[in-house]
Amino acid sequence: MAVWDDLVGQAKVEEQLAAAARDADALVTAHAAGEPDPEASTMTHAWLFTGPPGSGVETAARAFAAALQCVSPDRALGGAPGCGFCTGCHTALVGTHADITTVAAVGAVVRVEDMRDTVRKSYTAPANGRWQVILVADAERLNEKSANAVLKAVEEPAPRTVWLLCAPSIEDVLPTIRSRCRHLNLRTPPVEAVADVLVRRDGIEPETAHAAARATQGHIDRARRLATDERARARRAAVLKVPLRVHDVGGCLKAAQELIDTATEDANQVAEETDARETEELKAALGVGPGGRLPRGTAGVMKDLEADQKRRKKRTQIDSLDLALTELTGFYRDVLALQLRSRTALANTDVRDAIERIAHDTTPERTLRRIEAVLACREALERQVAPLLAMEAMTLALRD
Ligand SMILES: [Zn+2]
Question: Which of 230, 257, 315, 392 is the most buried (most CB within 10 A)?
Answer without folding.
Answer: 392
